[in-house]
Amino acid sequence: MEPEIEYEMPGFLRVHKSGHVERLDGTDTIQPSPSGDPANGVASKDVVLANSISARIYLPAAAAGAEPSSEKLPVVVFLHGGAFFIHTAGSLIYHRYAASLAAAVPAIVVSVEYRLAPEHPLPAAYDDAFAALQAVVAACRPDGGDEPWLAARGDVSRVVLAGDSAGGNMAHNTAIRLRKEGIGGYGDKVSDSAGWRSCIPTSRGQRNRRAATRNARWTSPPAASWAPDTRVSTFGGVAGGVEACW
Q1: Do 179 and 189 meet the contact criterion of CB atoms below 8 Å apart?
Q2: Of 224, 220, 235, nearest in space to 169 by CA
Q3: Taxonomically, which superkingdom (predicted)?
Q4: Nearest C-alpha neighbor of 229 from the set 129, 128, 124, 130
Q5: In this structure, how many other beta carbons lie within 10 angstroms of the beta carbon of residue 159?
Q6: Which domain holds residue 196?
Q7: Number of compact structural domains in the chain
Q8: 28 vs 206, which has greater pLDDT?
Q9: Contact at 8 Å (CB) between 82 and 94?
Q10: Which of 207, 190, 174, 166 lies closest to 245 in space, CA to CA?
């Protein structure tokens, strides 16, 4: 007997009426390279920071071999894409990107694991993104915690939020929240916002708009009178971006 499907994003996700969520994309992952990636020398490891935030951290090769007293590095807090539904920090595409970013800048990159819809409706992902930024700021201080790469190498005065697709939207909204609430004395000077989005031909754009509205419904909690989280801004919002926090 064929399983009954409550909802499907073809090629990406199926939600069964039983409650089981079947992800069809974004499930392939790669292990971190604590001793350094052969391609670029960037070391990576999976950690749990404050606020129970899981992340994969990337340290450039030059910093890995330097003395702790050496010049500190900027920190990029990166939020992966996947329409709030799929992918992880360990997904092959995002692991490779984060490692290449760490090598090119150079910077410490913290690629954040956040809770995915529909099991965890919004605002769970937004809350995790802000909690991750709080955790990174705390960890970059000498007395901030048990994460040595951030404590010894991370420059708390140079923190950047970045993301792809849904992650770009999250970076943008995290910067807005940071400006309103602040974190440990930081956030009063959020600056240098940059974003980009794709242009879609009108006829296809209308079809995509209808599909996106259906999809967005599954990112939000069920309600008798449904309305999506306004921060999602599926059309006209940030599809990818960088927010230089301070």
Answers
A1: no
A2: 235
A3: Eukaryota
A4: 124
A5: 26
A6: 29-244
A7: 1
A8: 28
A9: no
A10: 190
Tell whether 3 is covered by a domain: no
**pLDDT tens track for 107-147:** 999 999 999 999 999 999 999 999 999 999 999 987 767 79
Q: C-alpha distances in angstroms, 89 versus 137, 208, 227?
A: 19, 27, 29
Q: Is residue 51 part of a domain?
A: yes
Query: Closest Cα partner for 193 from 235, 167, 161, 219?
Result: 161
Q: Is 34 a domain residue?
A: yes
Let me know if residue 4 belongs to a domain.
no
Pairing, β 154-164 against β 73-79: parallel
Q: What pLDDT was estimated at residue 68? A: 60
231: domain CATH number? 3.40.50.1820
Helical spans, DSSP H, in 54-201: 61-64, 92-104, 124-139, 148-153, 166-181
Contact 30, 38 (CB under 8 A): no
CA distance 88 to 180: 28
